[in-house]
Amino acid sequence: MTCWKDVPAEALDIAPNCSVVSRYGIGLDNIPIGRATELGMLVTNVPDFCLEEVSDHVMALLLATARQLLPLARTPERSGWTRETPRPIPRVSGQTLGLIGFGNIARALVPKALGFGLRLIAFTPRLRPEDAPDGVETTNDLGQMLAESDYVSIHCPLTEETAHIIDDAAIGQMKRSALLINTSRGGVIDEKALIGALQEGRIAGAALDVTDPEPPAAGNPLLSLENVIVTPHAAFYSVAATAELARKAAENVVTVLRGEVPKNLVKAEVLDKENCRLPNQTGVQ
Predict the structure, then answer these.
(1) In the annotation, is 107 catalytic?
(2) Known catalytic residue: 233?
(3) Of the residues 214, 226, 258, 260, which is catalytic?
(4) Long-range contacts made by residues 268-276, C-beta under 8 angstroms, separation at least 24?
(5) Average pLDDT for consecutive 10-residue bins of the chain (285 residues)?
(6) pTM given for the model
(7) If one looks up domain 9-48+239-282 in CATH, what number appears?
(8) Is 137 among the catalytic positions?
(9) Active-site choice (35, 164, 202, 233)
(10) N or C: which end of the chain has fewer CB within 10 A?
(11) Catalytic site residue from 23, 119, 185, 277
């Protein structure tokens, strides 16, 4: 079982009796899934973990940046009783929230965002428009979504395809008034490009629960810029969510060790392999 730590392929190579690698969470970028599958190991995760918590956190970050809560909270001590803010405060209702990726967390966000009167547009090449929930437009044109959005929230996993999906060119397609929100993985953003854009005013601000690397190095400008909120990869957290995660991750392991197929098997093709390590197929204990 693993949570944050990377699992090197070499570790799997020297574990001949390992039947299952259980991810204590959703993301799988720290597990060499391909190598595990080659070796006949089952890989599991908990894809419905913290859906409410992360989607709540996205809305909290969106509202905090849109309403400029941090500058306003500091104003009484710094400047007295004034309502001056670094930039104009928009009316959230009627603005556009763009979603990069449309998995479980993004779907959990939909009713919350619609409740604030936001228009939703999702960049999700694999979803047919007719399959989108009510109130959600879809597009396979990232540039279109970026150009139309007042807020861009990232919900895709970190893969070779999505690494630095937000780079200098992508930022250049965003509105200067746009706010970028990331609760996915730090590596989906080119951090150097983001810092430059924030310092130069090419986008209005960012709210990040993840960075690359984590934790960010001392002196990282993201930690001191007035138009940035950084939280320490805490969007997943609630007492209920962590208790549920522990139970479901353990259930995945127990299910495999009983010789049964787990509900949250990541690569089903492993079951067809001659060297599959599901105990009732191989005798592995």
Answers:
(1) no
(2) yes
(3) 214
(4) 269/37, 270/36, 270/37, 270/40, 270/41, 270/42, 270/43, 273/37, 273/40, 274/40, 275/39, 275/40, 276/40, 276/42
(5) 94 97 95 98 97 99 97 90 91 99 96 99 88 93 98 97 98 99 98 98 98 96 96 98 97 97 97 94 50
(6) 0.90
(7) 3.40.50.720
(8) no
(9) 233
(10) C
(11) 185
